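Can't paste images in this forum, so I'm doing it all in text. The chain is below; anyone willing to post the predicted C-alpha cells underneath?
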Amino acid sequence: MKILITGGCGFIGSNLVRLLVTTTGHSVLNVDALTYAGNRHSLDDLAANPRYRFVQADICDAPAMGRLFAEFKPDWVMHLAAESHVDRSIDGPGAFIQTNIVGTFTLLQAARAHFESLTGAAKDHFRFLHVSTDEVYGSLGATGLFTEDTPYDPHSPYSASKASSDHLARSWADTYRLPVLVTNCSNNYGPFQFPEKLIPVVILKALRGDPIPVYGKGENIRDWLYVGDHAEALHAVVAHGRLGQTYNIGGNNERQNIDLVRLLCGLLDELRPRADRQPYAQQISFVTDRPGHDLRYAIDASKIKRELNWTPQQDHTSGFRKTVQWYLDHEAWWKGILDGSYKLERLGTSA
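Text version of the structure:
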C-alpha cells in the first residue's frame, strides 16, 4: 500500500513510520509541518530508503494537501498530526483549535476529493485512520474503564480540540461515506518523545540533578502504552479494522504518577547511578497541580484484542526499562532539543 502519514516526524508518528518502512513492503509519504515537536532527525535512518519520502507541509494548507493527494495517490491515510500537550494547550489554545480542528477538516476534505475520484478496487481499499486520545472521555473515578461507547467529556483545550476532530472524522464517514476508522489511545511513552511529557521530563531532570516536578500529590492515574505497541495496533486497525468503527488502544498498565516517577528513578539508580550514589528519588518535588487535571484514565482494550488479535507486548516494567535505556543511549538527540528553545520549563500554569 501507499500510505500518507501526517505528523510522521512527531513522537508516535516517527515510530509508526519506522515500523511500516522497515517491517512491511508499504511505501510511506510523511507529511509534517515541523513545528516545535517535529524532528526530521528522528527518521535519519530512513533517509535513503526508496519507500520513504518526507514533505514539509501544513495540514491546514488546503492547496498543498490537494497536490499531495493528487501526486501520491495514497491507498491509506493515517492522520496523527496534532498539537498534543495539555499544559501547552492551557497557555495557548489557539494553535490547538487551528491544527487539531481546522487541520483535520482540511485533511478530510482532501481525502474526500481523492476518494471520490477513485474507482473499482482502489476505492474499495481506501482507508482514513484518525488517531485520537482517551482524554476526550474525561476523567474516571476509582473504578471503571473507558470503552468505545463512553460519552465524551473533555476538560482541557487539548482534549476538547481532539474531541471535535473525532466528531468531524465520524461525520465525514456518515455524510460523505468516507471509509473512516478512529482510534483512541492511552498515554504513550518510549523512544523519540519530545521532552515536555512526564516520562522524558523525569529522566532528563534526574540526569541534570534538577528537582523532578510531580503535580499535586502524584495521585493522578494513567494507563501507559509503549509507543511500539501502539504503532503495531495502528497498523492492525488500518489494515483489518471494520470501517466506521472506533478502537480503544491501551497498555493494560495503570499507575499513579508518583509510583511511575519512583519506578523511573529506581531504573536510573540501576542504569546510571548518581555520582554520590544517592537515590534519584530524593530529587522529587511536589508542585501545584495544573488546572483541570483529570484524576484517572484507563482503557478497555478488549475490542481490539477480540477483533484484531492485538495486545500490548510490553509489561508493567519492560517498556519503561527500554525507554530509560534509550534516553541514556541517545543523548545527542535530546541534547539537540534542549540546546534550542525548549529548556524543560514548566507550562500550563495559567488559571
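Residues 67 and 110 are 9 Å apart (CA to CA). The mean pLDDT is 93.
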